[in-house]
Design a protein that fits this description.
The chain is mostly helical and 183 residues long. It has one domain. The protein has ten helices and no strands. Helix 1 crosses helix 2, helix 2 packs parallel to helix 7 and helix 7 packs across helix 8.
Length: 183
Amino acid sequence: MNRDGFWGLIEDARASVDDTVADPDAVADALTKVLGTSEADEIVEFGTELARLQVESYRWDLWAAAYLINSGASEDGFDSFRGWLLAQGREVWEAALADPDSLADVVDEDRPEGFEGFDGEGMLHVASHAYKNLTGDEAAYWKAVDAEAPDTPDVPAGPEIDFDDEDDLQTHLPRLAALYLDA
């Protein structure tokens, strides 16, 4: 599956969701159904492309954006944030990778009570769930994807950003810093 096919499936799933920003889990549910109509090897190809995108997005500047937007981001939190970002579609994804500060146009700085962050963990598991639903063998899915997917680097790409240094965050992400850092 090429990248266009990958994003086409995500767009098909997004079309059935009213608010992908607030409800990435609905995108994940719809995508699991869309993938469920695919052949097992196509699901593995989707999962391999997802793994490639996760590696490409393993960057300090995007992690810093997740840190600001979610008031913190552990490594697992950063993974889940990138799942949320996938649910926003190709245009938002590519804009965020070109300039993570562009997410200031997507997120709402007013966090409602009970807000748990921009988290799309479900998006990271759609292919494995679809594969298991189709074949009953999730272990075979992971074996196939792991054989093709690149390894995640030990350190994020790009210049390191100190998440605890407000000046560093303001330098790299001025628009998001203006939304989320206390004056």
